[in-house]
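Reviewer comment 2.1 asked that we show a complete input and output for one of the modelled complexes. We chose the flavin mononucleotide case, as it is the one discussed in the main text.
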Amino acid sequence: MSFNTFGHLFRVTTFGESHGAAIGCIVDGCPPRIPLTEADIQPYLDKRRPGQSRFTTQRQEPDQVRILSGVFMDEVTGGQVTTGTPIGLVIENVDQRSKDYSEIRDKYRPGHADYTYDVKYGLRDYRGGGRQSARETAMRVAAGAIARKIVPGMTVRGALVQMGPEKIDRARWDWNEVERNPFFCPDAQKAAFYEGYLDAIRKRGSSVGAIIEVIAEGVPAGLGAPVYGKLDGDLAAALMGINAVKGVEIGAGMGAAALTGEENSDEIRMGNDGKPIFLSNHAGGILGGISTGQPIVVRFAVKPTSSILIPRRTIDRYGNETEISARGRHDPCVGIRAVPIGEAMVAWVIVDHYLRQRGQVGESPAWPFTRSGG
Ligand SMILES: Cc1cc2nc3c(=O)[nH]c(=O)nc-3n(C[C@H](O)[C@H](O)[C@H](O)COP(=O)(O)O)c2cc1C
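Response of the prediction step:
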């Protein structure tokens, strides 16, 4: 039984925990001759890294990735490329302060997986949460940087579109803004608002949730394997697997329930380039579990950080009622750091299906078809 591996042909296994020596992953099934150095991976890790602004935890983890295997010099280009063998990546854990864990050793932190790990395994690594810690998601981002390089012309971008009840104005969406503010927010005006809003929440010792939208463009039509390997199903599983994610939707998502058939169905016309043009994208780029060639649009909801300074009632592992509150470092909105993680998971899933499509179908059929035999 293995539950730390995701994907079929682009297969990622992660290992390690928050306070162990290191975290790492094996990326198996990556095609050969793809240029790859640490410099291709590090910028994405830097986006997820804690301590980037006052709006994320001040823990200092440099998250310096090392490629251990699966790369070699390409004789033609002289650059380093993948060899087709397992790519091993590792990040050493350097900020493991030896602190007093007596408070959380026995008490279950509400909103964390302390109780469920204990009731399942009979023990748990209480130092930073062990494997339940979102530290593991650094390896998702690292593997995602490799996934991004495989489908020609594909881009995967994410943005924070809501914090607490505060939504962005989609008319002001500007991808350039995402890089300019500490929230990965595409609406400059809303990002300015979030500064004061989140500061007030942080000062109260509280936290708030967020909604992240990820859009993958340049995804060929035909990816996804009905019926148990549907592209939307695998995207939902991949995103739901991120810590603190409580909801996933594709295209119109939950909102589709409020639409009529004529509002929701994406009408199709024929483009001059011989490809179909969809007049809207309520489907989020997926029909019948298969990509349409339109942008793939997914959103996921991240719950508010559970570790807050405000005391919460709980129990300990011996069944006694007690109270607990976080001390020191506290991240008022973990949804911010989930943006690069969501991008990575979307890239993993699409690449896995891209390779599966190549394996099963090979060359895509020449569409549109020519009518023959009346
Ligand atoms: C990037 C990231 C960082 C996180 N950091 C924290 C944190 O500092 N404090 C906290 O209470 N939860 C944090 N979480 C959420 C917990 O890991 C998560 O809520 C917990 O393990 C329980 O799992 P669940 O919410 O998926 O059920 C973080 C989540 C993400 C995605």
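Residues 57, 111-113, 132-134, 137, 242-244, 303, 305-307, 331, 334, 337-338, 341 surround flavin mononucleotide (CB under 6 Å). We note this here for comparison with the apo prediction described in Section 3.2.
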